[in-house]
Write a structure and sequence with these properties.
Order of helices and strands: HHHEHHHEHEHEHHHEEHHEHEH
Radius of gyration: 20 Å
Oligomer: single chain
Shape: globular
Length: about 425
């Protein structure tokens, strides 16, 4: 029955996508000042807007926050599949107010928000029909993405949607960790829910992912773009992911929508985003012991993309990306955020600054204070001047970490 629903949804959303494609040839709300460019090329107009935006707000939030140990907690602590699923029912976001996030972005002079709609645990924060593992079917009974998209549109803030296509610890037919290490938590015995047995099974996951991405492109108005994660598995199994087909689907439905997948999954992304650092990920994968073919794929994508518009994504906190209750957790100050903006200007890149809200959806007071102070500074002095000449000298791999995090991120993922 579930397969039939997904097939029917695919046909329905494809039809809706074709009709909305024409509707969205009218200028998206965040591109109103780029009309002449938009009439020539929707994508070029979106890229011009993106380069002018300079500063964005990244939001990592979801059921993992209930544990107060970051977004990789299900993997790191090997939390049993059904236990995590059951505990997710406690995730209700009772203090989540989309307007609070938009107001925070505006106060900091940010022009866009990137919202994690589905992280590696597979839980969707929107009303997806591809699965009942989502915030509408679960006890919160809210479409958090819809609430945010409406608030962004009203304020003129662009909305990027983060989607974890490269890892899904919940879907029955995602890869096994014998094929890709972080594909599954390393349980002693796999739960019955995990059905993947052979590579041909992966098509069930890919169809599921395409259905969800189609929903994101057809149900939430004109979006700024799709922000994909993680890229390691795509390098290792490019033939299974066929990522270009997904890019083409997005651009067919929303011609202006920008697609980003770290510093590149295949070199055809619209812009690049570096996680704490800029450059090819080949050395990361080399140190993780991945094959030379994976390292080569990272280098090839970087060489194709390195001169494109860029963004550096960095958390405002020192531990992880999602909420951490550890006493070791520390939030960046106004001065540190301004330093990040200066460093990004040198490499001719935007800064995407991440916050990790509490499980109830409320924003940490320290983050509100800091970003308000940053906004006041920018009001007075403006953004640092962009380096448009020798910025490639600065687009080198410079890790920005102020302390060691015990919550290790799996480097084969990235």
């Amino acid at each position: 029955m579930k397969k039939l629903v997904i097939i029917l949804l695919s046909f329905i959303t494809l039809f809706e996508g074709k009709t909305q494609e024409h509707a969205w040839r009218d200028i998206p709300y965040f591109l109103k000042e780029y009309e002449s460019q938009y009439n020539q090329s929707p994508k070029e107009a979106a890229l011009a807007w993106f380069k002018d935006a300079r500063f964005g707000l990244f939001i990592h939030w979801g059921p993992a926050t209930l544990y107060g140990k970051g977004e990789w907690v299900m993997f790191n602590d090997k939390i049993p599949y059904y236990e995590y699923e059951e505990n997710t029912k406690k995730f209700k976001g009772e203090k989540f107010n989309a307007q609070d996030y938009v107001d925070l972005a505006i106060s900091a002079k940010m022009k866009y928000i990137t919202f994690v709609a589905k992280h590696h645990d597979g839980f969707a924060l929107w009303d997806t029909k591809a699965s009942d593992y989502n915030s509408v079917d679960y006890p919160s009974h809210r479409d958090f993405l819809m609430e945010l998209s409406q608030a962004c549109k009203k304020a003129g803030i662009g909305l990027f949607i983060y989607y974890s296509i490269g890892i899904d610890w919940h879907h029955p037919f995602f890869l096994s960790n014998t094929l890709y290490d972080p594909a599954r938590p390393h349980y002693k015995e796999n739960p019955e829910a995990y059905k993947f047995q052979k590579k041909e099974d992966f098509k069930h996951y890919l169809n599921y992912a395409k259905t969800q991405i189609m929903e994101l492109c057809t149900q939430y108005g004109p979006i700024a773009g799709l922000w994909f994660d993680t890229v390691g598995g795509v390098y290792q199994h490019a033939d299974l992911f066929n990522i270009q087909e997904i890019y083409d689907m997005i651009h067919a439905i929303q011609p202006h929508a920008l697609v980003v997948f770290k510093t590149g999954a295949n070199g055809n992304e619209d812009f690049i985003t570096g996680e704490r650092e800029m450059g090819s990920l080949s050395s990361v994968f080399k140190s993780a012991g991945l094959p030379q073919s994976v390292q080569n794929a990272a280098d090839i994508s970087w060489e194709k993309n390195k001169n494109k518009p860029a963004e550096l994504n960095i958390p405002i906190q020192t531990l992880g990306w999602a909420y951490h209750s550890s006493p070791r957790q520390r939030q960046k100050t106004k001065e540190e955020v301004l330093d990040l903006l200066n460093n990004c200007a040198k490499m001719n890149a935007n800064l995407l600054l991440n916050i990790g809200p509490r499980p109830d959806g409320s924003i940490l007071e320290e983050n509100i204070k800091t970003l308000h102070e940053v906004g006041c500074h920018l009001d007075t002095f403006g953004f640092p001047k962009l380096n448009t000449k020798n910025y490639m000298d600065y687009r080198t791999k410079q890790t920005i970490r102020t302390e060691t995090d015990n919550e290790k991120e799996n480097q084969t993922a990235r």
